[in-house]
Amino acid sequence: MSAPPINPTTVHYGDLNYPSRLKDLYDPPEKLYLAGDAELLKLPMIAIVGSRNASAAGLKNAAIFAQGLSAAGALIISGLARGIDGAAHYATLQAGPQHFTAAVCGTGIDIVYPRQHRWLAGAICQRGLLLSELPMGAGPQAFHFPRRNRLIAALCLGVVVIEAAEKSGSLITARIAAELGREVFALPGPIQDPLFGGCHRLIQQGAKLVTSPKEVLDELIFPKNPL
To answer: How far apart are CA 132 and CA 114, in angstroms?
Structure first.
């Protein structure tokens, strides 16, 4: 699971370049470990999350939203997981050098989880940003991932849930985002499809139903790329 050696930078709470949006959390991390372009922390971020066991249509929709939103100047942030997360990261990288993505890890940034995302993590490190509150060498533990999700929720202006079952971890991200005053968006799907049970529940609870990146952008206002 170990990634190629990297030289992380560390940002402490109180540093000028510490992301101010994390201070909205009741338990903001004391430090962040970063690998990649730390300047990307200045960009407005939109989270794209969803099922690890995504359908082919879900993976396609993740790519469509990632490329459409990043083309408008948003950094696409997600959790490097299988399924929707990985599809969003990959599609952003594939869109070209002016499209940016960041992965919040549930491990130390020198540990790649899942293992099959070693190449993707390396590409994000080269052209985007890996970040974690966990120290180097920290491996995957079940309790790490809900805590990772709270960082994604805090950093973003809004979160787009592509596919999510009733008990998906993506709903944790959406719930925390809503509590922090971030916008929550969800894609609808067939009512019989369990992959959309969580999305439909979010819509019932007030998430905005969206079917295109434009509908997300119409709800969010963010500055032109400051980089």
So the answer is: 15
Can you give the pTM of this predicted structure? 0.94
Signed CA dihedral, 100, 47, 116, 121: sign only:
positive
**Hey, which residues does 36 pair with through a beta bridge?**
129
What is the spatial distance between Cα 62 and Cα 55, in angstroms, rounded to a whole number?
11
Average pLDDT, the chain: 94
Q: Which amino acid does the sequence have at 159?
A: V
Q: Rounded to whole angstroms, how far apart are CA atoms 45 and 100?
A: 10
**Identity (one letter) of the amino acid at 8?**
P
Angstrom distance (rounded) from CA 66 to CA 169: 19
**Separation between Cα atoms, residue 42 and residue 168, nearest integer Å:** 29
The structural domains of the chain, ordered by start, are: 9-217 (3.40.50.450)
Sequence-distant (6+) residues with CB within 8 A of 114 are 81, 82
